[in-house]
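QUALITY CONTROL LOG
STEP: pairwise intake check
CHECKER ROLE: data steward
CRITERIA: each record must contain a sequence immediately followed by its structure tokens, with no blank fields

ENTRY 1 OF 2
RESULT FIELD BELOW
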Amino acid sequence: MRNKLACALALTGALSPLLAQAGPQQMLLLIDMLKENGTLTEIQHQQLKAAMMTEDPAPSSKQPPAQQTPPLSPSEPVDVMVSTQGGSVKAESYDGRSSFQFTAQIAADAAWYDSDITDMGNAAEIRYARIGAEGTLFGPWEYELEIDFAGEDVDLKDAWLGYRTLGDSRFKVGLFKTPFSLEEMTSSAHQTFMERSLINAMTPGRNVGVGFETYGGQWSLSGSIFGEGADDGDDRLDDEGWGGSLRGTWAPVATDTRVLHLGLSSTARTYGGDSDGEAVFRIRTDPESHLVDSKNYLLDTNQYETKKSKYKIQHMEHTTSIGVEAAMVHGPVSLQGEFVRTYVNSEDYMESLDFHGFYVAGSWFLTGESRNYDHTRGRFSRLTPYSNFGWGEGTGAWEMALRYSHLDLDDQDIEGGREWNATVGINWYVNPNIRFMANYIVVNSEPDAAGEEDDPRIIQVRGQYNFGSSLLQVGSSKSSFAPIR
């Protein structure tokens, strides 16, 4: 019996740091357990209970009470929940009101050019090296920041603060994409082809301004009022003008494997002037291959600067662009197309200049997947293969794609060129985060901005890795968060 009591006292001494944090109820339970297993006699049990009941609970007046930290129970709330789902590190407060997520997109390209009158030059580059963060603050507040380190200069892509209200609407201020075009609003990380089509040259891109987004069961609506982009010169010297944009989409069919999408966009802006009081307008684009140097673009309305034409568009008043879009998904097959027309008004022309273009594209998943459609924003999003690639496991997702695009930048005495492109693409989705792409482009320009009929052939490939961009998607799942203890 003495040995049992000695063992009990030794165990009690070893556990004293924990027992010191235990209350009277826990101590009584321990005494009862020692009595039940025979460690304590009935007399010892009664004596210890009596001592517990008569002990003065008040702390000594000379010594402050010890700071007690209650032990953490799995059922108790924790401050932060963490997840690594999707390859990104995400953190969220236990009440779900604040969150943080890293985002990244890295892509390496290589391209080869053949039969080109304009020497485009074979080359390789880091196309994207984007790092960012996004999340929520105190419930309704949201934020996003993304920086691209590819190329010679650091490029700020997104930097905005938003406020979500009524559950389905968001107001935001800062630098973000102006709502226009299905192709433009779909992230470059989730495009079917390596580069967007020729008509993307007529989209407003990212600008600084204020905007709103809202949606219903089958529709979405977004708009913005904006100035210039983050790197469009010294605003202290230039009067940049202002613009507005509105985009609406309707998806009468939007399931996991079937989609019918229709959309309409419109944007307009006025122009101020530079330090000389002169407002200049320009549309130019590469032949759907980013590695082509800008001085060798086949389409350019302002070839005056490269001495290929004596005309340039200046003394600007305003521009208006209208875009019509449609898309369909039926199982592994998808079709998509857009038409955009831009009217340019200048003091130098009695009538508006008219530039326009279109594209049609289709894709087929050989492995059976369907493109992932986000009806809340009227765009396509990340694809998840049925099986990730792994030796002896899965094949990933394989996609074949075709696209035909056209852009006409000739009107009145502006000879920006006309171009038709046909592209064949193949994509291998190793998993939701890694993708390899290959495009073959047949270019036909009649004539190009230099007056030549330049018809190059282009082969280009890409390796891409990206993660993140899920916390701010409406209806995104956060069930994978685990507590930090």
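ENTRY 2 OF 2
RESULT FIELD BELOW
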Amino acid sequence: MVSYLHQYMEVEIIRRIELNMDEQKKYEVIKKLVDTNGNKDRAAMTLGISRRQVNRLIIAYNDEGKGAFVHGNRGRKPAITTLDEVRRTVVDLYRTKYYGANFVHFTELLKRNENISLSVSAVTNYLETENIYSPRVTKAKRKRIRKELEQKKANARTKKEADAIQTNIVAVEDAHSRRPRCAYFGELLQMDPLHTNGSGRKKQPYISP
């Protein structure tokens, strides 16, 4: 009874393992080879692999059964597992590492440098949700977004909410810049570089109020 139950459990486990076409072919060839004590050279030729690889597959089959033929990366949990994590990662990378890149180029950089493969529309959606706009955003779109934000600001219930919306408005207006400006005029001291007058003497830097 115990032997029958053990055999039944093994069959159930095998049924739950799904292989792709290449994996299934390897499994069937090696299983037949082991069951019939067949010709290893013929199996190697059928699979297009070396005799040594056939020996390795036989050992793996004897140890793990059908599960030995599932590719090692199958079912492995990716580094980023949820859409929210993807969104946060994309936004953080743009702000800290790729700020100022247009969204098409940024999408390419994500794939090439960060191993994150997304469509341009998805990247655009993630960034614009955070009021980050491409340097190539059109004036018409910028104007439309600003109008929507101005309306939200007018309906804001608290000063904190209004200030947050004001920051977003500035972000829209400054979409072409590599450095976000402050939300309100006068918050940042801007210094002109040293320059010379007609006599060749250096003037003191001018600090705007």
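INTAKE CHECK: passed for both entries
DESCRIPTIVE NOTE, ENTRY 2: Residues 138-209 form one domain.
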